[in-house]
């Protein structure tokens, strides 16, 4: 089981999900306000969601995580 780290910056309204650590080789915008970052092996290492409260809707507004939190997830 791997730990996925989720960070939310309320002031910037950006949600960042760290899938694994390591240097970013490139990033790709996969939809408006959503960017996936990749390593040199073309594996995703992180997901950035800009305007998170708008993109994720009212459910996100009512369930906002603390400024920085960790969740466990199998990857």
Query: Kindly state the mean pLDDT as a whole number?
Result: 83
Count the DSSP helices: 2
Domains, number: 1
Q: First CA to last CA: what distance?
A: 7 Å
Strand order of the largest sheet: 3-4-5-2-1-6
CA radius of gyration is: 13 Å
Name the shape in a single word: globular
The major beta sheet can be summarized as: 6 strands, antiparallel
Order of helices and strands: EEEEEHHE
The number of distinct β-strands equals 6
Strand content: over 45%
Q: Level of helix content?
A: 10-25%
Low-confidence stretches: 68-75
Structural class: mainly beta
3D structure, described in words:
With 75 residues, the chain is mainly beta. It has one domain (2-57). The protein is 13% helix and 49% strand. It has helices at residues 52-56, 58-62; strands spanning 2-9, 14-18, 26-31, 34-38, 44-50, 68-73. A 6-stranded antiparallel β-sheet has the order 3-4-5-2-1-6. A hairpin with a 2-residue loop joins strand 3 and strand 4 (34-38). The longest helix has 5 residues, at 52-56. The N and C termini lie close together (7 Å). The model is unreliable at 68-75 (pLDDT under 50).
A few lines on this structure:
By secondary structure, the chain is mainly beta. It is built from 2 helices and 6 strands, in the order βββββααβ. The protein starts with a strand and ends with a strand.
């Amino acid at each position: 089981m791997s730990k996925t780290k989720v960070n939310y910056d309320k002031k910037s309204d950006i949600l960042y999900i760290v899938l694994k650590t390591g240097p970013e080789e490139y990033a790709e915008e996969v939809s408006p306000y959503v960017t996936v970052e990749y390593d040199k092996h073309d594996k995703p290492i992180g997901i950035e969601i800009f305007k998170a409260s708008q993109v994720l809707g009212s459910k996100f507004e009512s369930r906002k995580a603390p400024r920085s939190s960790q969740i466990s997830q199998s990857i």
